[in-house]
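Dear colleagues,

I hope this message finds you well. In preparation for our joint manuscript, I am sending the Anaphase-promoting complex subunit 4-like WD40 domain-containing protein (Eremothecium cymbalariae) sequence together with its predicted structure, so that both groups work from identical material. I would be grateful if you could confirm receipt.
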Amino acid sequence: MSLTSEELNYLIWRYLQESGHEVSALSMQEETRVLEFDEKYKEHIPIGTLVNFVQKGILYTESELLVRYDGNVMPVDPSHYEKDFNLVQALEVDKQRFPELVARGRFALKHEEEKEPDIQIKDEGIGKDSDDSFIKTLQCLYTFPAGYVSQWNPKFGTVFACGHRDSQASIIYFEEFEDKWTIKDTYSLVHPNVSEKQNEVTCLEWSPNGESLLTGVENGELRLWSMEGKLQNILSHHKAPVVCIKWNIDQTHVLTCDVENVTIVWNALSGTALQHFNFREPGSTESLGVDITWIDQDKFAIPGLHGSILIFNIGVSKPIGKLLGHTQTLTTLSYNSENQLLLSASDDYTLRIWRGGNINPSNTFYGHTQSITSAQWINEDTIISTSMDGSISVWSIKFSSPIATATVDGLPNFTGSLSPDKLKFATGTMDGEVTVYDIKKLLNSLKGHGMSANTVSNSISIPVIGDYQSNKEGSYVVHIAWSQDSKRLSVSYSLGDVAMISLV
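The corresponding structure tokens are as follows:
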């Protein structure tokens, strides 16, 4: 329902007449077109309509807070209705959700104008000339041959790896001078073609010390390379495209999985396959999941049947734990070693938090309406996620609720990536747009609000730093990777080259 300013004027004029304020009603009659509306609507609008609208608005504003994120109504003491269901409380709630516009300059009231010199703007380190309404257009520094994956070296900040569609990957060394980067060396990593067909690189991952790179291709072959592009080992047991590679913390073992739900544990030193898991039922086309994670140097979590999560130890054939809750394909598994919690996300639209020793989730987050495409830890209490429904949500474990949201023109988010310093978050959409969000400013804003229950009930918007748009029509974002200094990111597209984008 919408209400024009002239219609509102008419309701106010009617209220003044009904209340006996004839002089005020006459003054309003002289300055507005209320008499024209009176001829049209007099017979259709009952006495007390304005008061009725205001009361319903108060009821709606307060009732909205009584409904939890899962649709259930919170229990409320009857005294709450007398205390909080009033105009002042409703205006306070609305003010927190939609901050009022501040009149400045010639539009400011006199008493506000006199106080203005006393206002001090707090510098949050974003930049003295920054403006929250300004969204920076990010610049492309370099492009590389088309590919689906790329990753920056975790220890050597100017070393970059990129997978291509012609059976090759590249290791690129940059030189940095006065914040400008130039390409110093490039090493080609070649996988053999299969039956005259190009063997696209589908996955790659640097070792934690940054001295080795493992690449996986469409036919399932894995190759281990040195930083200088020298072949160190070939791992050949997968028969389908590899979608995920994870090193354990001491770099002695590697966990890999492919599109046919085969998961393998490798000895990284010898290239030997130590364990082989395939839980898919015969004849089934169900995808169990596209992510895996280490919990410690010997323990790991992998997708099981029907949305389950299986916990294994190296060398043990049977799972030591089975986590039940999800009902569809797992899209994220991420263990936080600081709070010792496991995060999972799924095509069933939910995120779940798991504590050690408990087979049931300690937190379940509802809110997304389509598949979740990424979920990552910001800190011990806070998680950020993206979904095919076009939304980005930030969740609090403490409050078990969303605390901030954003939507990119309603377009599906195909991927999301948190920067290494955990102060920025980049998303990629179906139309090829990359948007970078300011997590630092968001956390400062949440801290300023005090993270009260009322703040949680009214999640705030996530500030935007800048965006980048692909100029190739029909190309969508498939992968985003951050440089170690969190100042640059590489973007892989379904069509066209890999773009290296700068935030500085």
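For the figure legend, we might mention the following. The chain has nine helices and 34 strands. The chain has two domains: 1-66, 138-149+178-188+226-502.

With kind regards,
E.M.
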